[in-house]
Structure formats: C-alpha cells, structure tokens
Write a structure and sequence with these properties.
Number of helices: 1
Largest sheet: 5 strands, antiparallel
Oligomer: single chain
Radius of gyration: 12 Å
Distance between the termini: 16 Å
C-alpha cells in the first residue's frame, strides 16, 4: 500500500494543507482527503480520467477544492 502524503494546495485564493491517504479497496483505489475546516471526503478515479469525489449525502465540498486535490494526487503519482 502506498504511503499517505501532505500537499499544500491552492483554491479560491487560499492555500491549505491537505493530508491524502491512499486506500486500496476491492473496486479500486480511493483516497481519503483531510483538509482543515472541511469534512473528510474520498476521491477515486472517474470515467473522465480525473479524480472525483465519492458522493455522500449532505457532503458539500467546493468543486475547486476537488480539482486541486485531483491535481495534487496526479502530481504525486508522477514522482
């Protein structure tokens, strides 16, 4: 299993620290994402070739944050 990592990401004019934890499940790779002042959420690879949020009832995460996390995961994977 891959190790977790942290990344400073920028969205909506703010820079925040995201802690990203890879998780291998039966149906693929998921990433738990923790960002201060936002509820924990999960992303996985979508059919569009980008990481997208796993929908949960009542979860409201800014789309710009999801895109920034997707970019961070892709960048980390290239290392």
């Amino acid at each position: 299993m891959k190790q977790n990592f942290t990344k400073r990401i920028s969205f909506e004019g703010k820079i925040v620290l995201a802690v990203i934890i890879p998780e291998h499940r039966q149906d693929g790779m998921y990433y738990e994402v923790n960002v201060k002042n936002y509820p924990r959420f999960y992303v996985t690879m979508s059919s569009l070739g980008r990481y997208d949020i796993v929908s949960e009832p009542g979860l409201k995460i800014p789309y710009e944050l999801i895109l920034a996390v997707s970019d961070a995961i892709e960048e980390h994977g290239k290392k």
